[in-house]
């Protein structure tokens, strides 16, 4: 598990290899990730947007921006956490993601970024 804390917001990431499949005559590698966002600060915060840089060893880096996470803009109270799972398809068995969340401190209305540490994807058979 990879963990990082930014401005009292702790982000932990766990990855899994989900398997392979063929699509349009090409092999694809499916990876899952579960992220827990824990509010260790004294104020409630809301996650409003996300930014991802997706690295695939066989392709150009892809950037993805969007509102919230999996269709939600969670409010996280002090001492509480929000956990969600998502996935990523790669053209190769090795890759990585990194990024940040845009957050709002609901007491001060200050907007800030919370870094998501780089997390790696590797199919078990690719690590030999």
UniProtKB/TrEMBL annotation:
PROSITE patterns: APAG
InterPro entries: ApaG_domain, ApaG_sf
Coiled coil location: none
UniProt domain ApaG: residue ranges: 3-128
Family annotation (PANTHER family): F-BOX ONLY PROTEIN 3, POLYMERASE DELTA-INTERACTING PROTEIN 2
Name by which UniProt lists this protein: Co2+/Mg2+ efflux protein ApaG
Native source species: Croceitalea rosinachiae
